Amino acid sequence: MKTPLFGAFGAPGPKHMLGAMQSIDGRMRKYGNQGEVDFCIVGVGSAGGVLLQRLARAGFSVVGLEAGPLWDTERDWVSDEAGSHKLYWNDLRITGGEHPLTLGANNSGKGVGGGSVHWAAFVPRLHPSDFRVYSEDGVGADWPICYEDLKPYYELLEREIPVSGPAYFPWGDPHGYPYGPHPMGGCGDILINGCTKLGIRVCIGGPVAILAGSHGKRPHCIYRGYCIQGCKVGAKQSTLISHVPNALEHGAEIRDSCMVSRINLARNGSSKSGTVTGVTYFDSQGHEAEQKAKAVIVCGYAIETPRLLLNSACPGFENGLANSSGTLGKYLMAQAGNVVLGRFPELIRMYKAPPAHAMTEEFYETDTKRGFARGFGIQTVGPLPIAFARQMTIAKGAWGWGMRRVMMDYNHWGAIALLGEILPWPDNRLELAAEKDKYGIPVTKVTFNLHDNDKKMIEYGKNKVMEVMSAAGAEEVVQEQRYAHLVGAARMGSDPRTSVVDGFGRTHDIPNLFVCDGSVMPTQGSANPGLTIQALAARTADYLIAQSQFGLKKGAHSSETPRIRYDLSPPDTWGKGVPHLK
Amino acid sequence: MKAKDVKPGKVIRVLDASTRPIDPATGKPLEPRAQPGYYPGYDVLSQQAFWDAATRKVVLDRVRKIPPIRFFTPDETDLFRAVCDRIIPQNDRDSDHQIVIVNFIDERLHENRLDGYRFENMPPDQKAYQLGLRAITEIAQHLYAKSFLGLTTLEQEFVLKTVHDGNPPAGHDIWKRMPVHRFWHLLVQDIVGIYYAHPYAWNEIGFGGPAYPRGYMRLENGDPEPWEVEEKRYEWEAPLGSPSADYGAIAGMSEHPGAPGQRGTH
Amino acid sequence: MKAHDKFGIVRSTIADIPVDAEHAAHEITVHIREGRFQRSLALIAGFTGGMSGLEVAYEHYKGSYSNAIMYTPVILSQALLIAGVSGAVSRRAARTILPTVSAITLVDCAIGFGFHIRGIQRKPGGWRLPVFNIIMGPPLFAPLLFGMSAYLGLIASFLRRESASRFARPGRVPLPTVSRLLPAKVQRDEIIELQEVREGRFQKHLALSTAFATFFSGFEALYSHYKNNFKYKIQWSPIIVAGLLIGASLGAIWKPKVAKRLLPTASALAIANGTIGFCYHARGITRRPGGTKRLLYNIIYGPPILAPLLFAGCGFLGLLASMFRRER
Ligand SMILES: Cc1cc2nc3c(=O)[nH]c(=O)nc-3n(C[C@H](O)[C@H](O)[C@H](O)COP(=O)(O)OP(=O)(O)OC[C@H]3O[C@@H](n4cnc5c(N)ncnc54)[C@H](O)[C@@H]3O)c2cc1C
Ligand code: SF4
After folding, report:
1. CB-based contact (8 Å) between B214 and chain C?
2. Domain CATH number, residue A371
3. Which are the contacts of B46, defined by CB distance < 8 A and separation ≥ 6?
4. What pLDDT digit, counting tens, does each position of A391-439 carry?
5. Domain tally for chain A?
6. What is the 3-state secondary structure (H, E, C) of chain C?
């Protein structure tokens, strides 16, 4: 066939190729910014999207302010690597320290859905041990909550997303997934072959937030490998597709292309306490505006959240809002994400199939024999040509004819990656720099250093991944140092002197100011953070709903765990799926 | 040949035989081809009817709409074009199938399109390019007492290799303002990012290209889709003595692995 | 006659198949010719149904049972298995449960076919990308292939039992209740037809069914082997054999000679091909990454282990058809 039947696919008409799912048709409720709404959410990303949906469905008036656009996936997204640059937060950030992180394309999203638009969608849970790293290993920190607190939310989100994976996942708290596993691509086969040779258990076909089976209007994955470029198909979950449509149906408003510049505060006399009254933002035309709210929840990602809180400093809160502990912006974490590339005599064609489709957590927990605390996972990745060429400039120092030659062999290369737990350190931090962005808000400066434990983990982990690659039959194995998944910097804890928020995301200092995104994580494990972030958001939502009847400005009414609201899930959540271990 | 004499976007490079890759069997330079690489007859663009309209537009614009030079001065443009020609040499491509690089980087700098970050010890990207090009000129002068454009391709490669290796013999005041390896990193990452975004380059490496609404069905064992072609390898060698044919760590990267990859993977 | 004693219980409860090999072939042929093999056909319907049920189970597992209706064929297939076995054991079950379950299954298959057509339509590009979406979408004809078992079950319910006397007049078939609503003339035709089935006179009919089943199964082989790029030459064989068998079946409708000569040969080929294919598929599964250590996953995503057996089943159907008498 030279063309599809009836000729080339044309521009999408008023009706989208995949139906309403691809654009949020229908009218959105508009609150206008004169009155006070119940909740104002800053950033409709991974956490913000879930929160928005829950609160709207529970009947509250809620406005989400989002710095980026509300995507029309059929018109705005492309099935092309270079053309997907706009999905990322590309505004200037300054990066430094001994081991500076690359930001932008490597980190956060901009636009409704946030990072979940361009994530690879690996969604493992944290292990029970992750919540007590300090008690068990004497490093890092303990969480104020434990695995059992989050477990029902993991299960709930795994259904809402829904997650595809094996019916039995053996690590951490063993469990299974509501959708079945995916078929393998070249890199998955490499990981399985390598691990099987070395006797390492491996989990195939998930867990990923990618549909193996249709889900409502969302179709099955078509194995095109462009997950990181935004899934036009709608098979990969982003909160834009799984939660936002339902939020809008229930009366939430999303004001897109609105950059929040500060959170406003009403101070109690001259004391060091107060309540927030709302936020100031720049709307899509660049005009400054204000939105009043009974409570503000900041969901702006581990960089923008602390930046906004720091930038909202005001009399009584000179070091930034909710920063009486001085820990705001500190304990920033990234996971070690070294990519290991292997050349095989046979063809691989790693651009097919989603990059995320097989993994092992065999090395997740602390093993004293290895000489460092905590551990790492190994996962498949599937770099497309540009990403691969850039990896080759570092992994092999390639340029000129050498670059042309190795790229001609692109189809012979496969890639798998380390995902290692770097511990939280106070000197890994984020501050406001002197330079300003186009709104006049100071840009962020991120400082990052590896510590001894981290270096040992990376060395050991990297070698292990290279060993797996060789065992799979690669004739040449190289690697590139990389970091992934920024979290922390507004961490939760039970002690207000050493943490920014409590176990539900409420700031210790200001009763109606909440943080809900990856920045609340005290440690990160070596599981990708996305599912945990969304599960925490659902939990925070239940807490907000339960507490709001007492008035949020007064502070916690009781620290009781709220009832889990199973009735607030988006449609299509229940009544299907494969039999699996609960 | 000076690019100034040529329509914007249309670039003709000197196709001196000694600059072309060599056929090891005969020892002779390979003829320039419309499509180097091991996938003869493979044409990604022939599949465009199967792509969605938004993607088709982005990819075709990349082939057809070459942005004008707005950021670089004419002299910088010539110099930078020569540098790009060494970082991604295209002497094995015929002149109709060479991929324009400079104009796209110029566009990025003109529009101040960032990658979302800047290293604390680096000037803004625009400044970095201006400084870097000046340094390259100085190295050429230092080593050969000629302008970079006046050098043979091999000599040009040797000049760039000093930057790759992290020991440039000249331009020291510039390297005080920005670390050598960071500049190299910026330069190479930008250039390969443009080259391998082009459908001609996809044909060369056998990449399937856009895949929506039609996805892939043969996921394993490197099997080609019905519309992809099987690999047909041939032997070739880089032009005699070319230093870029060898792989070597970028100096500064191994001691402190502080230039991690920029692209997200998982 | 030791074997006889040893299997005495089996013999008396399940099938009147004589153990004495000499008589066996002859007896079976006679039974089939005369439509006296309700028990065997009920068993065949039950087992093929159960088997395709297994295939449905893992195929739908690949689709994550994303719609609760995807469980129905799995449940019905097991119901069909039970109905088939009970039909073999009890005459009453063969007249009641078997046709009921078979009819429900047939309806379910028709609905399933509709869902599969819609499933392909709902994939990106829909029917405008027929090749890709048939290959990657829900298997188009799989519900119909599964329906063939139910159809056999339905036929079985009209047959005579093996124990029925050769010389007794085949009793009259009671018309299904729904048929009473039809005009008298149609009712009369139906009675005649059913009577013929009862007497084993429906060769043409079964040959046509064979052609259909083979088409469904062969089509699946075609696109899944195409998906695999016909990496081994032998992957063409079921497609060629399917062509042959379809030809022979259609020919059998047209000429008794074809039914007697060509059809059994083509059917035997299909049975052999399916059996060999089964071995290849089993080998393919063990050769996948992780091999037998990942057996379950590799069964699900490796070459479909039961598909060749279903293809062999089509050959079996053809063989059966060749043994029947023709319609009057
Ligand atoms: C390439 C890549 C692959 C990844 N793969 C995985 C993976 O496989 N699995 C996994 O679990 N995780 C993965 N991640 C990480 C994951 O995407 C993030 O951890 C997660 O999305 C973070 O969620 P969040 O809610 O904290 O922030 P985000 O989802 O980034 O949401 C923040 C939102 O807030 C908005 N915002 C910020 N500041 C403001 C402001 N001042 N005003 C208004 N709006 C604002 C932003 O525009 C953004 O939309 C990946 C990340 C990348 C870059
Ligand atoms: S591989 Fe699947 S999930 Fe990823 S972009 Fe393609 S269709 Fe979406």
Report:
1. yes
2. 3.50.50.60
3. B227
4. 999 999 999 999 999 999 999 999 999 999 999 999 999 999 999 999 9
5. 1
6. CHHHHHCHHHHHHCCCCCCCHHHHHHHHHHHHHCCCCHHHHHHHHHHHHHHHHHHHHHHHHHCCCCCHHHHHHHHHHHHHHHHHHHHHHCHHHHHCHHHHHHHHHHHHHHHHHHHHHHHHHHCCCHHHCHHHHHHHCCCCCHHHHHHHHHHHHHHHHHCCCCCCCCCCCCCCCCCCHHHHHCCHHHHHHHHHHHHHHHCCECHHHHHHHHHHHHHHHHHHHHHHHHHCCCCCHHHHHHHHHHHHHHHHHHHHHHCHHHHHCHHHHHHHHHHHHHHHHHHHHHHHHHHCCCHHHHHHHHHHHCCCCCHHHHHHHHHHHHHHHHHCECCC
**What distance in Å separates the CA atoms of residue B107 and residue B115, rounded to the nearest whole number?**
14
The token pair at A272 is 């060091």
Q: Which two tokens stand for residue A179?
A: 């959708």
Closest in C124, C226, C227 to B212, CB measured: C124
Place of tokens 């039959």: A473
Rounded to the nearest whole angstrom, what is the distance from the C-alpha of residue A520 to the centroid of ligand 1? 13
Range of the domain at A96: 17-568
What's the DSSP call for residue A265?
E
Please report, for chain C, the start and end positions of each structural domain, with discontinuous segments joined by +: 25-165+174-200, 202-328
Instruction: Work out which ligand 1 atom sits closest to the CA atom of A534.
Output: 25
- Asked whether the predicted pLDDT for residue A148 surpasses 60, the reply is yes
* A338: in domain: yes
pLDDT digits (tens, 9 = 90+) for A82-135: 999 999 999 999 999 999 999 887 788 999 999 999 999 999 999 999 999 999
Q: What is the pLDDT of residues A383-398, one digit of tens each?
A: 999 999 999 999 999 9
Long-range contact set of residues A152-156: C-beta below 8 Å, sequence gap at least 24:
A152/A564, A153/A535, A153/A536, A153/A538, A153/A539, A153/A564, A154/A125, A154/A531, A154/A532, A154/A535, A155/A582, A156/A535, A156/A538, A156/A564, A156/A566, A156/A569
Residue at A265 is within a domain? yes
Name the pTM for this structure: 0.92
Cβ of residue A193 closer than 8 Å to a chain B Cβ: no
Structural domain spans, chain B: 43-265
Average pLDDT over residues A243-252: 92
- How many A from CA of A89 to the centre of ligand 2? 22
Contact of B224 with chain C, judged by CB distance below 8 Å, is answered with yes
